[in-house]
Structure formats: structure tokens, C-alpha cells
Write a structure and sequence with these properties.
By secondary structure, this protein is of the alpha+beta class. The protein has one domain. 38% of the residues lie in helices and 16% in strands. A 5-stranded mixed sheet has the order 9-10-11-7-12, with helices on both faces. The chain has a 4-stranded antiparallel sheet with strand order 3-2-13-8, with helices on one face. A hairpin with a 6-residue loop joins β2 and β3. α3 packs antiparallel against α7. The chain is globular. About 2% of the residues have low confidence.
Length: 317
């Protein structure tokens, strides 16, 4: 049980597709890792990046390590790698099982990253702080005040089985892996399965890049909406969810009917790489030590943006 402590939040088998083809045969294969704002990379083995100690290990009440999540993710990674080699690399049609594997891998890649797990915990942290304050107030409250707090409590009878206790919310904040990772993955995989799947292809160098947050949710029409509704979401028909699967290919999940293998021009590749670099948490990955100025370009808000329509101050996007 002392094994499997080094756990990757971006799978090393996934990153191997970005190993520099110019690497000498007797040298350990490497990718080029760039800091998010840098245009110069460093050679790193996929085995030595994007990992944490016991990141997906859950401990029971006795302190024993439970590796079910780590082993489950590893199994999905193997299935995806096989599908990538046997079908995607050869531009062959995927059957229903293989589409499910790819879709589940995209959902897992999105929900399992270090930054996403931290985001999920942060979403519950404000609620936990509010519950902590109410608990402190209850210690000195009068009987009448306690009855009032009980009436407005989220654990009141009107909420039924859908409510969470104070301790359950604390567990989510303290341990997002053990409490929310699998439910979030299962829910997202089920929703993504209903989207159209296109495989964008290129022969240009360096091709598609990836990052420490490989799965990107983007909506090209979001800038037209007010801030409250501008986040990319599955309710919008213009949502685009991308996952580069190699320097030559990038999966595009969409609701526009785009399916199958699609060859795209280099200009479009650069646009997807621009999204990828901006979406990165700290690092992006290229198959060679090169970058492109366009990946760093920040567009001004278009004239039909919500902000300009409202006469608000312009910000780059």
C-alpha cells in the first residue's frame, strides 16, 4: 500500500503524445513545459510533471489508504490510450463504447485537475463560513433566537433529504476528492455523452498544445451576455468543449452538429492554442521548444459585447 503515492492530475500516458519527436533514441523522452506567460520552455519527462503525493488517495477512519479512485482513473487512462492509438491516430470511426471512453476521459480530465478540485472546494467554502457563524451565534442565542434559526436552517424539514449538514459541508471543503470528485465526474460524463463529437486534425508544427488544465470550456458567444450568464455552460447551443489528444488532433464537443474528422487550417489551430494557453493554470505543454505570439494575444471587446452595449468601461478579453 506504500506504492502509487505519486499521482498525476494530468495523466502521463496522455502527455506522452507531446514528447519531442527529435529526442535522441538513447535519451528519456521529454515534452517542453512552458510557464503560462513564458515563450521559452524546459525539457521535462511526462513522469515528472503535474503530479501530487496521494492526490486521489482516500483514507478510512483507521487511516488505511484507499486507492479505488486512483486505480479507476488509471483504468480509464489505459482504455483511452488504446482508443487513441487504434482509432484516433488512424482516423477511424469510433463505436459507441469507444465514444463513451473518450467522453468519460474528457469528463475525468476536466474534474480531476488540481485547480478544478480547488475550485469545487472554494464553491462550498462561503457556505461553510456562514454555517460556522450561525453555529457560533447559536452558542449564545436565546431560546427564541434558536427556534428562529432552526426555521430558516437549510436542514429544515422543507429541504428534506436534499439538505447537507454542517459536517458534510466541512468534509466537502476539506476533502473534495473523497466527497465530490466521483459524483462530479459521473454527472458531467452523462451530460457530455449527448454532445456532438468532432476530431479536429492538423499536420502543422508544433500542432495543438496542451496544459495543466487540458479540457477547455469556451463559448464564443458569451461576450454578448451579461456577466451573470457569461460563463460557458451546457444550456447554450454555442458551447465548445475541447481536449487536445495529441499535437495532430483535438476533440471538440459541441451542439452544432459538427462530427467526424475535420482538417482545419493553421490559423484555427493557433486560435485553439490561444484558448488553451489562457485557460492554463500555471503551465502549458508543446512538443517542441517553440511558441507563437498569437497564443498571447488579448482581443479588445467587440462592438456587440454586452459591456459596450451597456456603455460600460472596456476591458480586454
Amino acid at each position: 500500500m506504500s506504492k502509487h503515492k505519486k499521482q498525476h492530475f494530468v495523466p502521463k500516458c496522455y502527455l506522452k503524445a507531446w514528447c519531442d519527436p527529435g529526442c535522441p533514441k538513447k535519451q528519456t523522452p521529454y515534452v517542453w513545459v512552458f510557464e503560462k506567460e513564458s515563450k521559452s520552455g524546459r525539457r521535462k519527462s511526462p513522469d515528472n510533471i503535474f503530479h501530487e503525493k496521494d492526490m486521489y488517495t482516500v483514507k478510512d477512519k483507521g487511516g488505511k489508504r484507499d486507492l479505488k479512485i486512483e486505480h479507476g482513473l488509471s483504468g480509464l487512462e489505459r482504455d483511452f490510450s488504446t482508443t487513441r492509438i487504434k482509432k484516433l491516430d488512424r482516423r477511424r470511426d469510433l463505436d459507441d463504447k469507444e465514444k463513451a471512453i473518450v467522453t468519460m476521459f474528457i469528463a475525468a480530465t476536466h474534474t480531476r485537475t488540481k485547480s478544478q478540485l480547488s475550485h469545487m472546494a472554494d464553491q462550498w467554502r462561503d457556505m461553510l463560513q456562514s454555517m460556522d457563524r450561525l453555529a457560533d451565534q447559536a452558542k449564545t442565542a436565546t431560546e427564541e433566537e434558536r427556534r428562529y434559526m432552526a426555521d430558516i436552517s437549510p436542514t429544515s424539514k422543507s429541504q428534506g433529504a436534499h439538505s447537507l449538514t454542517h459536517n458534510q459541508v466541512r468534509q466537502i471543503v476539506d476533502d473534495p476528492v473523497g466527497t465530490t470528485l466521483l459524483p462530479a465526474f459521473a454527472a458531467e460524463a452523462g451530460l457530455l455523452a449527448h454532445l456532438d463529437m468532432a476530431i479536429l486534425c492538423t499536420t502543422c508544427r508544433p500542432g495543438f498544445i496542451t496544459s495543466d488544465r487540458p479540457c477547455v470550456w469556451f463559448d464564443p458567444e458569451a461576450y454578448k451576455r451579461p456577466p451573470l450568464f457569461s460563463a460557458p455552460a451546457l444550456i447554450h447551443d454555442t458551447i465548445e468543449i475541447t481536449l487536445p489528444v495529441s499535437p495532430k488532433q483535438c476533440i471538440l464537443l459541441n451542439r452544432q452538429g459538427r462530427t467526424g474528422y475535420i482538417d482545419i487550417p493553421v490559423e484555427v489551430v493557433h486560435e485553439f492554442n490561444r484558448r488553451q494557453r489562457f485557460h492554463a493554470s500555471e503551465h502549458y505543454v508543446v512538443c517542441e521548444n517553440s511558441s507563437n505570439d498569437y497564443w498571447f494575444y488579448e482581443f479588445e471587446l467587440p462592438e456587440d459585447s454586452w459591456e459596450k452595449q451597456q456603455g460600460l468601461r472596456e476591458n480586454p478579453s
